[in-house]
Amino acid sequence: MRSDRKKPKSDLRNYYTVFLQLGMVAVLLIFIVAMKVEFVAEKPNTDLTEEQEVTKMEDIVQTKQEETPPPPPRPQVPVEVPNDEIIEDQSIDLDAEMSLDEPLDMPPPPEEEDDGEDFFVAVENMPKLKGGLAGLQKQIEYPEMARKAGIEGRVIIQFVVTENGNVENPRVIRGIGGGCDKEALRVVKKAEFQPGRQRGKPVRVQYSLPITFQLQN
């Protein structure tokens, strides 16, 4: 009796593997079919040929501003001027006798303005350097500083030649440095001149001298 009851169960267990394989095959087929089906979304039918609104461009008319001319000026109102003044006639005596012997009454000449300078810039006879400029150049001692630095050039000294021919207030108006300016002043202070003359009289005259510094090759 027991052996008869267990037989059907043993038969069903033998088919488990078959059912499992069939189920897997069925699932696989369903998956393959699902992959091949195309899902097409419904697209709304849009008619692109609809008429679009046409916008018309209106021409812009430029307005011109009319320039109004300015109002005319007001006429000047005449003003009455009293005409009561009497102009006296001046009589000119053309028959008056003129004496050439009598001195004429002339206004005095204008006084010369004193500008504070007591010397002339240009006179009839200008001052002359005694011994000449070449003799003055021989007294120059070339400064050692300028020699080492290779400084060359011309120093201009301005001064006043007095009535006695002496040099007064010498100053450098153009220098080159390196001790040359001081050396030029030293030499010019010792210079002697024949004084300048104006109308035959010795006068004070402003004068300038160029002192040249040149190295020997």
From TrEMBL:
It comes from the Bacteria. The keyword Cell membrane applies. GO terms for biological process: protein transport; siderophore transport; transmembrane transport. Keywords: Cell inner membrane, Cell membrane, Membrane, Protein transport, Transmembrane, Transmembrane helix, Transport. The chain crosses the membrane at residues 12-35. One of its GO terms (cellular component) is plasma membrane protein complex. Its main location: membrane. Residues 127-217 form the TonB C-terminal domain. Pfam families: TonB_C. It is found in: Cell inner membrane. InterPro entries: TonB (IPR003538), TonB-dependent_transducer (IPR051045), TonB/TolA_C (IPR006260), TonB_C (IPR037682). This is Energy transducer TonB. It comes from Fodinibius halophilus.
